[in-house]
Fold this protein.
Amino acid sequence: MKIRNTFYTGNNVTNFIGRDEEIQYLIDWYSNEPNTKITFLVGQVGTGKTALVLHFKEIAKHLFSNVIYMQGRALNSLHIKEVNEMLQKNIANSSKTLLIIDGLDEINSNDKIETVFRHLSVKNNMHLLITTRPAVLGSRSWLNSDTIYNIISLGDLKMDSIVKYLSDKIETDNFNKIIYQIEKNNIDLKNPRLLNYFVHQFNENKDVDLTIQRMENTLSKGYNGLLVTVDKDKLKVYPTSRVGAELLSLQPSISIPVGPYIIRNCLSSFWRLQLNEFEELINETNKKEADYQRYFEKYPHFIKGVDYEKVVPHPILDRIDKEGALIPDYFLQLLGEKYADILELKLPNINIISGKGNRIGYSAHIHSAIAQVREYRDYFEKQEYRASILQKYGLTAYRPTISLVIGRKPKGINDEKLIQINDTIPPYVKVITYDKLFEKMKRLAMQKYL
């Protein structure tokens, strides 16, 4: 019974996606490379290794007289003798055999792996197709040094395959809107497992936002978006499938439960809702500066970023020799320092460019704002003012960098031209459009999430 359950007898998978190049490579392998008996199909979790070999299994029935599919983990319940008998029974009477081992990395004994390859070495009529994760191919101690083999690396799906699959499988009257929402929410569906899950959830509820929320709740529960594997006394942690492993010491008292390997590249609801709120804010024309100030007081991490450790809203710069205090929008205290930079917010609907042709430059609005922030900067030239602010806020400033957030990205002007225009203003002033700020916020959210 154990032996019988080891083999797969089902039909072809119904949710196979793309991989035309890999399938053609496997067909050519049999036809054009008679001396290369082994092909490794290598990829991270969820890249579709099993789906591909099950799909090719049906094609292979026309190329081989005998096609055998074995799950690697099923061999763990068998003794070496049983593995040996199983292979002899199923391979001996066939003239042309393709043996598919799905999940070499799931076989817990090198002896069992060596048994499989020993049978291959004495059977000239057998080809071996093996799926595995990359780490297993590190030593290859179970392979003879003169063994010839191929390696197919299975990466992300190509965008045209994703779009075609969504078009075939999603039940909607407005397909372009669905694609727009996927791109807007920064959802990475290049992993076939995640793509299938998205299609299933969307066809149930017909709502992209609800689909994303359900995916996040299901896929991230208890794993925080990390892929974790145990290797002897070490943990291998992959924040995503595109990041190399970090080895962390595992204390004897700590027990790490082994669970499904989850890789997720989309933002969590926590960040997505904050970003959506900001995008709606900058697209409404009737908002005031105070509305943007309230947003960043609510979510200061977006202006704190990775360079600053403290945000002080509306610091009061008292002046002795002039009437009235200066009040910048924000002090941003640099990491590990007592000094701060300044951030000033203006409205996104301000036109920041004027002129035509070769006489394009920053508008009067920009120069007026620069004059205002220059006054903030000049304030700190006086030592007594710097000391007063240090006593009041626990930080001070001296010739600070000033970020001026204003306007939207100008249409029809490329980045190189904007760099040229920036050279016409003082070097301590950084003009940041709301579009540029939003892009930085999204990148920051992704970094913090991962």
Q: What stands out?
A: Residues 2-154 form a domain with the Rossmann fold fold (CATH 3.40.50.300).
